[in-house]
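@channel sequence for tomorrow's demo:
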Amino acid sequence: MKKTSLTLLALGVMASGGAAQASDKSLVIGTNNWAENIAVANMWKILLEEDHAYDVELSDVGKSVLYSGLANGDFDLSLEIWLPTTDAPFLEPHRDSIDVHDVWYEGTGLGLVVPSYAEIDSIPELAAQADRYQYQGRSAILGIDPGSAIASLTEKAIEAYELPMNQINSSGPAMMAALDSAYRSGEPLVVTLWSPHWAFAEYDLKYLEDPQGVYGDNEDIYWMARPDLDADDPWLTSLLNAWKMDDDSLGSLMARIEEVGDPAEGARGWIHDNRDLIDSWYVAAAD
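structure tokens (generated this afternoon):
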């Protein structure tokens, strides 16, 4: 992977007005398979390539590989780390080798989710009604890949609440397909889910109350990078530090991608419709 050494224009350059000039602007962005991560990674790839002549590679890897890759310099940056709880175990072994930068989304959610028509409101209630919440013929919680932080927390929740259930790990799309099928049929199903996620715009869902706090309190999403990225590319660091999204902006980006069915095409359409927001990041980066 080539490192960047950039000749920068003023920080006030706008997305529609030209790119910083340099002969070598290659970036590798480490990604994972969460819906919001796919959305913002494709958004930034398009912005940096089409507006600023970067060469951006998106590398989809597991969480452990993502953090070790950043620490080793195999990746330049990654756009999502949940703190102070969810991703702390992944960061801890590399705390001195990864730079955690600014928050771009405040107030996440994480936990067990059911359709709002489900007649339970808490995880302890789930323990008493576990036989009603089945997947593929057995009492189960349907989750995402086993290397994810939410999968690990769900195993802790199963133990803490003595749930007579197993976690079935799947891909994010497979989990959402199962949720869609159950929802349309009015059937009970419990899944692991997080906010921000486009599902909350498409379905009427609710988090199960977690009185023991296994899933932690609401968190914030930061971006992170190899330690020398700031020195190599201060323009990019300033821009990403100025980047902010909320439920409306991020939800609309994810919903556009889900509707179109292609991350790049969906992100490109969203960018076209949200230039004022994007330009505000450039203005903030210049301050």
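heads up for whoever presents: The chain has two domains: 26-106+220-286, 109-207.
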